[in-house]
Amino acid sequence: MIGWTQADLPDNGTGADEQQVFVAREAQISRLDDLLRQALDGKGQIVFVSGKAGTGKTSLLKQFLARVKETRPETLVCYSECHGTPLVGDPLRPFDDLLAEIEQEACNRSKLLKWRKWIQERQKRLIGRSKAEWKGLLGDVIGIFSPLISLAFKVASMILAALIGTKDDGAADESSFRQRYEHLASYAQRWPLVLTIDNFQRADDRTYALLEDTAARIRKLRVLLIVAFRPEDLSWDNPLYTLWNEMTVREGIPEIRLDELIEEEDEQRRFVDAYLDTAYRPNRFDAQLRREITRRTEGLPLFVRELLRLFQQQGWIRQVEGHWTQVARPDRRLPDTVERLIKQARWSKVEAKDQKRLQVASVEGETFTLQVVADAIEEDASKVCERFDGELGQRQQWIRSARPVRLTGHTYHRYGFWHSFYHEAAYDLLSPAAKKQWHGRVGKVKKTIWGAAWQDIATELVEHFELAEDWDEALACYEHILREWQGLAPPERLAQVTLKCADMLQRLERVEVALPRYQEAELLSVQANDPIQRRTALTGQAWTRFEMESYAEAERLFRSVLSFEASLEKSSGSEVVEKWPPLGRRLYFGQAVAQIANGEQEEGLTTLATALAPDAPETNDRIDEKDLLDARQWLRRLREQHPDTPGITEALKLVSFEPGEPI
C-alpha cells in the first residue's frame, strides 16, 4: 500500500539513518506505467489519483516520477501543486506553473542562450495573463531599443489590450485554452511529457474547465497528465465534484482510488507487514504487535509511520542483537488519530524556539519562504536556515527543501512541510490571537520583500490581510485581483471578488463607495445565474442604504431579499435552500428599524417581534448578542436624530433584555 515515507532508523540506538521506504503499491505503479506506455505511443492520457489525507497520493506520484526520470531520461517530468483556495487562487495557475517548468527543462536540455531563456519566460507569462502584463511586456521589449518608441508602443498596446478585453468570456476562454494547448503540443512533439498536478481540489473554476478542455485535446499527444485530489474536500456544489464524475463515468478517464485500498482489511495488514519488514529490517515483531498497529491505524500510511516513530522514541521497540524487537507493551492511551498523534507526541519533541519558527512558517502556508519567516520573527536568516536544514529537516523531518523563487535579482530559499498534517498541526496549535497577529506580520513582510512586484502575489497576500483583519491592505489586494481578472475569470468568480471588495469598503465605513460595488456584484451574479451571490449582493445593498440612513430604500431592499428568498424556496425546493446560509435575525432587526424610521410603527414592531421569536423563519436558533446590541444602538441613534418618531420607545423595550432571558 504506500510508501515514500521516511523512517528514522537509529544506528545501534544512537544515530539517525534516513531511509526511503516505498512498499505495496506495485499494482498502482504498474497501472501508471501502462498509461505512460500508451502516452509514449501518441495516445495522450489523463488519470485521476484520489484519496483522503495520509493515504499516500503525493508519495505515489513522487515515486512514479522518480522512476520515470531514471528509466526514461528522454521524458520531461514536471510537477505542480495547487495552493490557496478556489476564491483567491490565480486562474489557471497550476497549468501555467507546469508550462513554466516545461520551458525551464527544455531550456536546460537545449542549452539555449540567456536571451532565449528571457524571451521564453516572458512568453509563458503572455499566455492568458492580464492586460497590465500585456502592456508591460510589449513596452519593455521595445524599451530595449528606444525610450521614445517604447512610449509610443505602450500607447498602442493599451489600445490592443482594450480590444482584447471586449471579448466575451466564452471567446476569451476558448482562445486562452487553445493557446495553452498549442504551447503544450509544441513541446510534446519533441519530448514525451509526464505532468502532475497535486491537491487539485484547491484549483479554481477556470482550471477545472481547462482540465476538461485539455482532456479532449491531448489524445494524440505524447502526454501523461496525472491529477491528484482529496474527494472528502469536495462539497456537493463544487464544480470538480461534477467534473470528476462526468470524466470518469462518461468519458472513461481512469482513476486510482487509494481510499479503496485503505478500506480493505487484508490490504491494511499487507501494508503494515510490508512496511515493518522493509523499514525495520531485520525484525522479530510478532503477529500480536502487527495486529495492534493495524487495528490502531487501519493501515493509513502516515499514521503507521508516526505510530512507529512514537514506539521508537518511547523505547517500546529497539534493536536487540541486530534485530528490531518489541521490548515493552505500548501505552493503551495512545492518540486515536494521526492528527492527535502529531500534536501530542511529535510536537512535544520540538524545541520552543523551533516551535515558533514552524508555526510562523505554517502561517505562510504549506510551502514557505526562509526570508519571510526570518524577517517575521526578527531572526538572522542564516540561523533559521541552519535549523531548517538540520534539526527540523534532516533529523526530525518536519520540513524539506522546495524550489527557490527568483525575485529582483535575488534568490529566496523556500521549504515545504513534509505533509499537510504537519502543516495543520503547527498552525492549529496557534491561538486565535496569535494567528491574527502573525498573518498580519507575514503579509507585511512578504509585501516588503516583493516590493513593486507585490501585485504578482496579491492572491496570497489577501488571505493574510483578511485573517489579520487589516481591511485596508485586504481591499487593495482584492481590487488588484478584480482588475487582473477582468476578461479572464467567469462572472461567478468576479461576483465573489466584487462582493469581497464591497464588504471591505463597508468595514472601512466607506458606504457610498461600497454601494455601487454591491450593485455591480448583483449584475454579475445574475449573469452567472448564481442565486446565493445575488441574495448576498441584495443584502449588502440593503445594509449599505441602512448605514447611509436611506431608510425607505433600505426597507424596500430588505423586503426584496425576503421576497427573493421565498421565490427561491418555491422554485428550488426547501432541501436546496436549507443548504444555503440563513439570513439571520439581524436582517429582521434592520428591517424593523427602517420601518419605524419610515413611520410604519405597527409594521416595524411586528417585524421586531417576529425577529425575537424563538422560531423566527430563516434564522439561527439563538439570538446573537452582537445583533441585539446593534439593534439597540440603531434605535437610540434614531431617537437622538428624530425624537418624535413613534414606536421607538416600545421597540427599545422589546430589545432591552439579555440573550437567553425570556422575552
Brief characterization of the structure:
With 663 residues, this protein is α/β, with parallel strands linked by helices. The protein contains 30 helices and twelve strands. The protein is globular, with a radius of gyration of 29 Å.
Q: Strands, helices and their partners?
A:
Blueprint: E1 3-8, E2 18-22, H1 26-40, E3 45-50, H2 57-71, E4 76-81, H3 93-110, H4 114-126, H5 131-143, H6 147-165, H7 169-188, E5 193-198, H8 205-217, E6 223-229, H9 239-250, E7 255-257, H10 258-263, H11 265-279, H12 287-297, H13 301-313, E8 317-320, E9 323-326, H14 338-346, H15 352-364, E10 367-369, H16 370-376, H17 381-395, E11 399-407, E12 410-417, H18 420-428, H19 432-450, H20 458-467, H21 471-485, H22 491-507, H23 511-528, H24 531-547, H25 551-572, H26 574-577, H27 585-597, H28 601-612, H29 625-641, H30 648-655
Parallel strand pairs: 3-6, 3-7, 4-5, 5-6
Antiparallel strand pairs: 1-2, 8-9, 10-12, 11-12
Folded structure, characterized:
The protein is α/β, with parallel strands linked by helices and about 675 residues long. The protein has 30 helices and 12 strands. It has a 5-stranded parallel β-sheet with strand order 4-5-6-3-7, sandwiched between helices. Strands 10-12-11 form a 3-stranded antiparallel β-sheet. Helix 28 (about 600-610) runs parallel beside helix 30 (about 650-655). About 40% of the residues are buried. Residues about 1-20 and about 130-170 have low confidence and may be disordered.
